[in-house]
Amino acid sequence: MTREKTGRGILMLLMMVVVLSFGAGMVFAADPVSKDNASEALSLADVQTGLQYQAHVSQQGWQNPIPFAKQDQGDVFAGTSGKGLAIEALRIQQDSNKLNPAQLGIQYEAHVAQRGWLAPVSSADTNGMAGTVGQKLAVQAVRMKLTGTEASRFHLYYRVHVQNYGWLDWACDGENAGTTGFDLRVEAIQIKMLAADSHFVGSTVRPYVDASKLNNGSVRYAAHVQQAGWQNAVQDGATAGTEGRSLRLEAVRMNAQAANLPPGIKITYRGHVQNSGWQAWKSDGQTAGTVGRGLRLEALQAKLTGPMAARYNLYYRAHVAYYGWLDWTAGGKTAGTTGLAYPMEAIQVTLREKSQGAPGATAMPSVDAAQVAAGTQVNYRAHVSGIGWQSRIANGRMAGTTGQKRAVEAIDLNLSGVVRASSVHYRMHVQKIGWQGWKSNGQIAGTTGRSLRGEALQIKLSGTAAALFDVYYRVHAQNVGWLGWAKNGQEAGTSGGSLRMEAFEVRLVRKGSRAPGSTARPYVKMVPKSPKAFGWMPVSPTCICVDRPHQTLKAYVNGREILSTPVITGRPGMSTPAGNYKIRAKQSPSVLIGPGYRSYVRYWMPFIRNSIGIHDASWQDAKGYGGNAYLIGRGSHGCVNTPLWAVKKVYRTFPVGTPVYVR
After folding, report:
1. What is the 3-state secondary structure (H, E, C) of 597-610?
2. Where are the domains of the chain?
3. pLDDT tens for residues 231-270?
4. Catalytic residue ranges
5. How many alpha carbons lie under 13 Å from residue 507 in its C-beta half-sphere?
6. What is the value of pTM for the model shown?
7. 543-662, what's its fold?
8. Is 497 left (phi over 0), alpha (psi -120 to 50) or beta?
């Protein structure tokens, strides 16, 4: 019994061993190594063999597919470059016999013009595509990512070639590639698959540009200021430079290197510099202007280059001496002044979408000398006896009246237009008062309510206006009519004759240009024929006047008395002849020869032939000149005996031909 039981036990044990061995053999046989089994790890070669991509291009249609296996064979891409053609659709296809979608696939989508982001599609979808066909709508951006159980073992890289930009950087695993908000087409695309643990060679800094993410802080700029040097850079419309300190800008620099700007974008700029004019264009933080030379920066131009210029404006404005802040400008136009020698003192710069418009007024971003000349005028009006104030007029029109025997009693003037830091100054010669003090910029010269006639006026400019213009003016005087044109502070009208000023005209003329008319005799200063009885008469404003009854000689230059001296004229029976003469000659020294005398003189100026003239008389010096000396034996033979100091000044001041009036 025991031996029999033992035998059966051994047999059963052997049978169990056989069964277990057979069962184990069936399991291994049912699990052979297969690429279709989801539990087996994929190689990069497996993935590259099972994927390809192709583009639908405007005017061309579908191009031939590009296998992922060719990703390392040079510069392979789908689409075109340099032809201006848009990718309208993208297709990524997967061979399911070679690459199980459950293990690895690609989900991709496109941002299309006028449509935005379309629904994602899968590489496993044989007929799938991202984009449109037959609608002429460009793809503007793409994004794609890996799916499946093996997705974490790989990275998907892709980049696009965009209109105006060229190739952007590489995107990876679901990131956007391309642009949105610019309406720029994608023209080409590259896709690469890499193992997760491999090193990717290529830039991934900026694969995508979103217009909505750009902001004003993208532009940085700095100013070099008189006495201070380079200031810290500022951005986003902040002020570079100073205000209210009268410190000139000497240089500026700008750049557009902030991370939120599109790649390749540039700001170019240049300065208008004292004594030099416009410099060459600068960029990328280079210096526009000068450093260490003490030269003022007078104006600035700046502009954008690259893709951003189509959608954005770079606005800038200048703070200028005498003007303050001028208005904003863009697109390479001038901010500041030219031809006026005014320094810029500060700038502001900002970047804005064109749809936003300018950050402020744009009417007057710059001023140049020609603009000032064209836009500036002198305005004036007259207060007329019996009428009162007339309406204000400008630039050469007549203020006052003619033919009505009315006097101009008061005037006021001002400047208008683009000229700054300028004034017009004026004064009147008034009955019973004479020359008043100077007035300016709308103040009243003359009188009102007192019935006092105006007789003459003077007008002059200061500041920028004086550098750019000559101011001409003329007077219509009682009994005389229109006198010649005076300019820049000269006297116009009459004085000393009780003649009313009846009208006047004023004109601004570019500096150095011709006068608007004759400049002969703009001012008439009256001198008496005799002390009481014979009234007054006009004379040349530059002349020598001999008053026999008062035994005086007075000299005038442009109506202004420069000399008055007592003299001794001809004695009774040989009196100095009255009349209007001219200096005929000048001689120094000279010897005067006559009946019974021979006299040495230092200065000799004959005005009647070579016999009667003006000269010094050393023999008269001891007893002096003037009074009644000519009546009591000290009178001359007809000449005008003059103190040496006075005749010397007359000789040196007045040329041959100067009028001599003897009364």
Report:
1. EEEEECCEEEEECC
2. 45-210, 214-368, 376-525, 543-662
3. 999 987 899 999 999 999 999 999 875 555 555 578 999 9
4. 615, 639
5. 17
6. 0.52
7. L,D-transpeptidase catalytic domain-like (2.40.440)
8. alpha
